[in-house]
Amino acid sequence: MNFSEIENWIREELIFNQNLSLNRVAKGVKLFDISLNDSETNHKEKLNSFLRKSIRLIDKKQQNDVNWFKINMIDNAITQLVGIGKIENRNDLSLIFELLTNDTADQSGDTIIGLFDKNKNWIMKITNNQDENRIIVKIYGTERITEKLKEVYY
Questions:
Q1: How far apart are CA 52 and CA 63, in angstroms?
Q2: What is the per-residue DSSP string for 86-118?
């Protein structure tokens, strides 16, 4: 799948009426929630570690490419697709924290990073909720994938 096909898929399947709606794909399960107000925590490393572990659990053989997209929800009303890319190094996902915390949505809107495999079997939605100053991660995918991750994190 090339970036043009990915962009069309995001715009046609995920962004609906200017609003990101992953619930159209599958029911989401919250796996991670951290307050950015806690100055004692290394938020970047904590998120990086969580994402590495989760992706390794989903795709143990590392056979599928992992791609990302970034969306800014301006005033939580207008959805702006900011970027698309491929994860080159699964062992260092610190790029995701940088994407979440730099060039954030205007008017305290959410900044969202989506991670997904090339077959679109799963999407990990990572949200920088600026109103609450939190990073929240939800997984959307097949029941097998969501159950596997729920067993580990709950």
A1: 15
A2: E-S-TT--HHHHHHHHSSPPGGG--EEEEEEET
